Amino acid sequence: MGQLSGKSIYLTGGASGIGKAVTEAFIEEGAVLTILDKSAEGLAELKKKFSDTVKCIEGDVTVFEDHVTAVRTATETFGKLDVFVANAGVFDGFAKFEKVSSDAMSEAYDMLFTINVKGYFHGAKASVKELKKVSGNMIFTVSGAGFYPDGGGVWYTSSKHAQIGLMRQLAFELAPEIRVNAVAPGGTLTALHVIPPLQPFVKIVDNETKEKSIKTRNPLRIAMTSEDHVGAYVLLASDKARAITGEVISSDGGLAVRGLS
Ligand SMILES: NC(=O)c1ccc[n+]([C@@H]2O[C@H](COP(=O)([O-])OP(=O)(O)OC[C@H]3O[C@@H](n4cnc5c(N)ncnc54)[C@H](O)[C@@H]3O)[C@@H](O)[C@H]2O)c1
């Protein structure tokens, strides 16, 4: 018996990176998944690999109706919804506030906050009724940027702080029926996408440079992979975490103890 045996989980952004690794880990632990992602190609790969264990919905987290479709698909296919994982997100590429034009600043704000923050609001709202029926839980992918500067630029960092605020307020409002927690990965080797309005203002680095830079920025000197974070998600989704709500598990190589040197 896996730790998530029989659980029906709805996860956004499962076609790539951290969401894909979490999807695979959840399936290994006995769960069935409904995935919402905009990448048709990534979803087709998931479907090929996992067949009836996953239902894939091609859509956009900024569209509330797409979440409603995903939740309905999960309940019609698997009979219930136990866990919602808000994970799909985009990046600002460490763009510097002063260097970005005011038009690009505004466009980037609307785009990044609509995906990273409103996307989480939408998913939570669409899931809450079904989660309440089974005393389920929500897990938000946040980031070290939800606590500290220099995990991105102002757009990404403020969006990740906002996600933590949303998580804590929901944990307060939805108790005692629903637990709400977060996982905060540190810099991870994925294809995390820099939004178009900020692309002219950032340097896109190759994977080798990215790996070196991530390693020097955390005390454990790890350039993390998506698989490094899955244990935290499995724990929070499982009944073993029944006393945990309103918490963030940091999976970041020790950013909180990096000191000043
Ligand atoms: N990579 C890192 O260093 C890092 C660190 C901390 C937190 N995170 C967070 O992890 C989460 C996943 O990012 P990742 O690094 O795995 O990136 P990724 O690009 O590999 O995966 C993101 C997935 O979300 C999907 N997506 C993006 N926008 C969408 C939209 N509007 N509608 C539907 N699907 C959409 C993409 O198609 C992709 O499959 C994000 O919330 C990100 O902020 C990443």
From TrEMBL:
Q: Which UniProt keywords apply?
A: Oxidoreductase
Q: By its UniProt entry, which Pfam families does this protein fall under?
A: adh_short
The protein's matches in InterPro entries, at most eight in alphabetical order, are given as: NAD(P)-bd_dom_sf, SDR_fam
The record's similarity note reads: Belongs to the short-chain dehydrogenases/reductases (SDR) family.
PANTHER family named among the record's database cross-references: BENZIL REDUCTASE, CHAIN DEHYDROGENASE, PUTATIVE (AFU_ORTHOLOGUE AFUA_4G08710)-RELATED
**Name used for this protein in its record:** SDR family NAD(P)-dependent oxidoreductase
* The organism of origin for this protein: Neobacillus pocheonensis
